[in-house]
Structure formats: structure tokens, C-alpha cells
Specification:
heterodimer; A: 275 residues; mainly alpha; MetI-like fold; B: 293 residues; two-stranded antiparallel ribbon
């Protein structure tokens, strides 16, 4: 790159990242603001932790967070199983009946507008309930099924792309030495794609934890998730407790992502050293 | 069943039951009558007398969508908003993806992490952040007033401007990531060769980089355009009461009016519109991964 174009690219990167991060930073800063007006800095009493204590006393938010946590954990674990199977099948079996359909079915949820997925899942649950009596009413189970349906698509993509780049000769060597396919999968394949599965689990967890639209369609009375509570609060205007919630979310996510990428970078280095 | 079959049968059946079959039900209900019952629609199939089954298909819901201008206008407006947002993502995201792809490997990983991080942080909370920035006594107005650039607060929240900002902001990582992974595979020596042969940098970019990154641009654009057409959260929070988007219309028909058959018809209409784009996206993806191997 010559100098003029690199200055142009550099300023684009700078402005772009400012655009991405100013809103996030503003939430963090104003979570310490004492004023109830949220965006007007009360310099006499700030910074303060009072909204952090208020959040910890807010039963509505804590209850919703507990429901969200349950749904997210079950969803992530189920999605990882389904997504790994699908990703493995698509990456390793070049030809099988239904390959095209499976491929289409894991691509579509990635781009499908959530209102459509949400509505269609709800209508399915209502029809099933009329037909066979299950699921009886809607709640955590129906929400989890809804979340798994789109989360597993993301896991499939992650696992599939990891498998596409890794060397099949290791698997072939194990087979030549007489290992059965199942053993090859658990002894060779699984450890190698483990980082991809872990990031798939984390991504599925986050997708579920953040989901508003599909949860709203598939939840029942008494099973409001955290995003549903946040949405109804935010519709009434800004609230200092939401800033606190956002700050805590950002802290957890940042720690997690940085931790996982450092761990993965280390694993990659060890891989290289071993090879 | 073979071992292969056993691997894929579980995800296959799951997606059939919870992703494909639901659409058939939506289609069915879009042809039913609204009923004041739970669930609020009349059955399509009914036993008439002892041995005859009557099918009642009515096209009223669809006719209604086309007679009331609200729905067509909402659909057209959603396409317009999604299209403009995609173009904005292209102009902001392309230089960023390009810059990241050309950075040194160490810097590249950090920059990539910075793009991914917002994507992991709740969309709802990040959209909420813009309310605090854009509102009447919000951060942007306060800064501009303090600098003396304006004397009265600007009205930004609940305008189309706010909605565009929200959509571009939320979907930008979805544009940058596929484009980056395309640009990362680029052979930069081609650019040097072009410059040696007398191309100016912009010409080289226009003649080499841009055509070679076509699939990355397409994949990123689809990942922004398709979900943005049906977006609900952003118009609901930033667009104000007049932001007419089809996702929001569907939501209101369902939750406020309890008109499930009308909501289903809206969903089917939206789906018919989006399926060609989804197929296009899939073929671009297949081409990309074929090129990677």
C-alpha cells in the first residue's frame, strides 16, 4: 500500500471502530452516573455504584436472568450436539441422500428474519398441542426448542469450517491402524475440533441469552426472559439499571472472548510445535 | 441404517420438524378465517356430516393485505430501508475489512477481535445505547450544545435517521466478517504486479481487488439485507411510532390485534420475497467454500 491510501484506510478503521465502540463505552460510563436522568452527568455525586446495588435488589430482573440462564445452558448443550453432528456430516460425507436439504436447512436459519421463525414455531407448538397434547402450554421447553433450532445452525457452520481446514490424514492413519470409526471420532477428531465446539457452545449460549423475538413468540405466562424484561423497560425510556446490566454483560463477554482467544492461540502454537 | 445415516439423521429430523414443518402450518393458517377463540383461527378441514370432509380455503387474508395499503407500503419501505442500510454497510465495512486483511498478523487478530466483540454483546443493549446517545437530552446533543455548534437540541431519536444508524451499527460486523475472510485469501502480489505495469492504486483496486472480492461482498450484503428486511427490534426502539417496517406490522398483528391468520399471510408474503435472496446466499456460500479448497 502506498502512503496516501494507507492513511485513508487507517482513518476508516479509526472512525469505524469509534462508531462501534462509542455507544458501548457510553453505557459503561453512565452506569456510574448518580443522576436519574441517566445521560446528564451529575458531577457532584458521581461516580457511584448505587445503580449496581439497585440492580441486585431488582427481583424482576434477577428472576428473568435465572430463566434466561437455564434456557441458555440447555440450548447451548443441545445445539452443540446437533450442530456437531450436522457439521461433521456435511464436512466428511461428500454424498448422501438429503445432503442438499440439510445444507439448505442449516443455512436458512442464519438469515431468516426472527419474526418469521418465531411465528412459525409458535403455530407449530399450538398445532402440536391440539393434536397430541404436547407441549402442554408454553414456557421454558418451547423457548429452548426455538433457540436450539437457530443456534444449532451457527454451531454447524463453525464446526463445518473447522473440519474443512483440518488434515484428514490423521483420521486416515488411525483407521489404517485399525481403529473403528467411532473410536477415531472420539480419540482423533473430537480433540482437534474441540476449540470449535467450545466456541460453538459459547456462541449458542449468547444467542439464546440475547434473544428477544423468538422468546416472545414461544414463551408462556411466567417465563419472561431477561431480554423480554429489558425490552419492556427500554420501551418506556432509558433506565440507569439497564446501563449497569449492559456494563456487566460487556465485562463478562470481553473476559470470556479474550480468554478463549488467548487459550486458542496457545493451543495453535502448541499444535505447531508438535508438528 | 448406515453409520453415516445415523450421524445426520438427528439434526435432519430436528430441522424438518422445527424449521420446515412450521412453515407448512403458517401457510395453512394464512388461509383460515379469524375466529374469536383460542387459538384464534378456524380449522381448515372440517367434518361435515358423517363421511365428508370439507376444506375451507379463503384468500381473504391475502386480499386484505393488498387492499389495505399499510401492508404493501410497509413491505416496500422495509426493502428500501434494508437496501440503503446494506449500501451504507458496504461503504463503511469495505475499507475496514480491507484494512484488517492488510494489517500485520498480530494487529490483524486484535482488530478482528474488536469486530467480533460487539457481535457477542447483546443486540438489544447495543440498540438501547443509541437511545441514550440520540435522545433530546442525550449525549450527542449535550456535546454539541457544550461545543456551541447548536443552540437547541436536535431531534434525532424516533426518526428514520436513528433507525438507519441502529441497523448499520448492529449489522456491520455481519458484513465485515465474511468480506474479511474473502480478502484474507487474496494474493496481494497481483496488486504489485498491476502497479508495476503502470496501474494507479485506485485503478488496481477497481480492476483487481473489487472483482476478486465479489463473493465476499455478496455474502456480507445478504447477511445484512435479508434479516434487516424483517427487523423488529431496531425500528421498534429507535424508529418511533411512524417507522413502518413489515417485521413490526407482523408483530403488531400477532400480539396487539391477535390476528394470527393475517400475521401468517404477512409472514408468507415476506418469505416469498426473501427466499430467492436466501438461495442466492447459499449458492454464494457454496462457491466460496469450494474456492477455499
Amino acid at each position: 500500500m502506498n502512503h496516501r491510501s494507507s492513511y485513508f484506510i487507517l482513518s476508516c478503521l479509526g472512525l469505524g471502530f469509534a462508531f462501534l465502540y462509542i455507544p458501548i463505552l457510553s453505557m459503561v460510563v453512565f452506569s456510574f452516573n448518580a443522576s436519574k436522568l441517566v445521560t446528564v452527568w451529575d458531577s457532584a455525586n458521581s461516580p457511584t455504584l448505587k445503580w449496581y446495588y439497585a440492580l441486585l435488589d431488582n427481583e424482576e430482573i434477577l428472576d428473568a436472568a435465572w430463566i434466561s440462564l437455564k434456557v441458555a445452558v440447555i440450548n447451548a448443550s443441545g445445539s452443540v450436539i446437533l450442530g456437531t453432528l450436522a457439521g461433521f456430516g456435511l464436512a466428511r460425507f461428500r454424498q448422501f441422500r438429503g445432503r442438499f436439504t440439510l445444507n439448505a436447512m442449516v443455512t436458512a436459519p442464519l438469515v431468516m428474519p426472527e419474526v418469521i421463525t418465531g411465528l412459525s414455531l409458535l403455530l407449530l407448538f399450538v398445532a402440536l398441542e391440539q393434536l397430541i397434547g404436547w407441549p402442554a402450554g408454553r414456557g421454558i421447553t418451547t423457548m429452548t426448542i426455538g433457540h436450539m433450532t437457530f443456534s444449532m445452525a451457527y454451531v454447524t457452520v463453525i464446526v463445518n469450517s473447522r473440519l474443512a481446514t483440518f488434515d484428514t490424514s490423521l483420521e486416515e492413519a488411525a483407521m489404517d491402524l485399525g481403529a473403528r470409526p467411532l473410536k477415531v471420532f472420539f480419540v482423533i477428531t473430537l480433540p482437534i475440533i474441540f476449540p470449535a465446539i467450545l466456541s460453538g457452545w459459547l456462541l449458542a449460549f449468547t444467542l439464546s441469552w440475547d434473544d428477544l423475538v423468538i422468546s416472545s413468540f414461544t414463551s408462556g405466562p411466567g417465563s419472561s426472559t431477561l431480554p423480554m424484561v429489558v425490552f419492556s423497560k427500554v420501551r418506556l425510556g432509558v433506565s440507569p439499571e439497564i446501563n449497569v446490566l449492559a456494563t456487566l454483560t460487556i465485562m463478562v463477554v470481553t473476559t470470556m472472548i479474550v480468554g478463549v482467544s488467548l487459550w486458542m492461540a496457545r493451543a495453535a502454537k502448541l499444535d505447531k510445535a508438535a508438528a | 441404517m448406515t453409520g453415516r445415516g445415523l450421524v445426520v439423521v438427528l439434526p435432519y429430523l430436528w430441522l424438518m420438524l422445527f424449521f420446515v414443518v412450521p412453515f407448512v402450518i403458517v401457510l395453512k393458517i394464512s388461509f383460515s378465517d379469524i375466529d374469536l377463540a383460542i387459538p384464534p383461527y378456524k380449522p381448515l378441514l372440517e367434518w361435515v356430516g358423517k363421511n365428508s370432509l370439507a376444506i375451507k380455503i379463503n384468500f381473504n387474508n391475502y386480499a386484505f393485505l393488498f387492499t389495505d395499503h399499510l401492508y404493501v407500503n410497509a413491505l416496500l419501505n422495509s426493502i428500501k430501508v434494508a437496501f440503503i442500510s446494506t449500501v451504507l454497510c458496504l461503504f463503511i465495512g469495505y475499507p475496514m475489512a480491507y484494512g484488517i486483511a492488510r494489517a500485520k498478523p498480530k494487529t490483524r487478530n486484535i482488530l478482528l477481535l474488536l469486530v467480533i466483540l460487539p457481535f457477542w454483546t447483546s443486540l438489544l443493549l447495543r440498540v438501547y445505547a443509541w437511545i441514550g446517545l440520540l435522545k433530546g437530552n442525550g449525549v450527542i446533543n449535550n456535546v454539541l450544545l457544550w461545543l456551541g455548534l447548536i443552540h437547541e437540541p436536535l431531534t434525532m431519536l424516533f426518526t428514520p435517521f436513528a433507525m438507519y444508524i441502529g441497523i448499520v451499527y448492529s449489522y456491520l460486523p455481519f458484513f465485515i466478517l465474511p468480506l474479511y475472510s474473502n480478502l484474507e485469501k487474496m494474493d496481494w502480489q497481483l496488486l504489485e504486479a498491476a502497479e508495476d505495469l503502470g496501474c494507479r492504486p485506485w485503478q488496481a483496486f477497481y480492476k483487481i481487488t473489487l472483482p476478486l472480492s465479489r463473493n465476499g461482498i455478496l455474502a456480507g450484503s445478504m447477511l445484512v439485507f435479508i434479516p434487516a428486511v424483517g427487523e423488529f427490534v431496531i425500528p421498534a426502539l429507535l424508529g418511533g411510532p411512524n417507522a413502518l417496517m413489515i417485521g413490526r406490522v407482523l408483530w403488531d398483528e400477532f400480539f396487539s390485534n391477535r390476528a394470527w391468520p393475517v400475521a401468517s399471510a404477512v409472514a408468507i408474503l415476506l418469505l416469498i420475497l426473501l427466499v430467492p435472496f436466501m438461495m442466492w446466499y447459499q449458492s454464494v456460500q457454496t462457491r466460496e467454500s469450494a474456492g477455499a479448497r
